[in-house]
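Data card: per-record layout.
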Amino acid sequence: MKKVLFVALAAFALGACDSEPKFHVEGTVSDADGKMLYLEAAALQGIVPLDSVKLKGNGSYSFAYDRPESPEFYRLRLEDKVINFSVDSTETVRITAPYNNFAVAYTVEGSANSEKIKELSLKQLDLQTKVDGLLASVRGNKMLPSVFEDSLALLLKNYKNDVKINYIYAAPNTAAAYFALFQKLNDYLIFDPLNNKDDVKCFAAVATSLNNFYPHAARSKNLYNIVIKGMKNTREPNRQVVEIPDSVISETGVIEIALRDMKGQVRRLTELKGKVVILDFTIYQSAVSASHNYMLRELYDKYASQGLEIYQVSLDADEHYWKTTADNLPWICVRDANGVYSSIAAAYNVQNMPSIFLVNRNNELSVRGELIKDLEAEVKKLL
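The structure for this 383-residue chain is written out next.
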């Protein structure tokens, strides 16, 4: 009797669970017989497996899962290929894809946000392909580093302007706008919420809209916290203008920089007299950082044995991120905790990130980045 009662209660409990409102994802994946298809949640804490199915001959599949309380993000994964989509409530999203080009050649129906997310994903993929092409050209000596830097900056500027206008500011209350904020290039966020004032405004627009519609949602609270931190980091402090005496410049040839590296050791630019130095102001969390450092690494590996050194000044707001990234770099890495309001960067009249200067063996400022047509050629001259 007790066993029968237990079975009955278990069945009732399962029935109660099944009665929860669900969203559905269904469709077909052609030419994928025997392949495993996974449904995963792209949650704040990371990727969470939800369900899976082994595809049969016709490639049809159907998933059902509890609806989210606020817009959430999910993905279909086939091997290492991923399709991102969003769910607002109990809708049915239909996604049809071929096995080949699974993450690119798919169609999505039943979710306007998911259609926009597809557009954004394809745009990001195109941007990454173009950046990879630029990197291959500079590595193959088919493009000058200075042309590479300019081309990379232009690509990123055009991409961000397009996404800002057509996806973020056009509909900041949508899941697609939120998705746009966290797109990456070379594993770096394209929109920087901690170091770039214009990008912080994008995050703020979406945070405000989400907070109005879903004030108790975890994503709303998280985004709000990011914006507060970004506004704090990019708010110009009240400080007096730092004037550098001419005597300091004339005696040393450069404006002295004395900042601590990851080990806490003070590293002075003037101590590098006798070497040719690439002085680089950068933000590691920017989308161009990885490609920029790849270019520097090519030069460093080629000419370090001949007396080239790199003195790289990070203006990152996030100290931990700086330490994690800089730990893999072979040159001198220091950080100015004043970030984008660094008095040192101001003294060097740094206008953009990254910004390069060349210092000769006598510790004299030789040339600044915007005047350099061929960085490698200029380095070779000084060596």
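Known properties of this structure: The mean pLDDT is 87. The first strand starts at residue 22 and ends at 30.

See the next section for split statistics.
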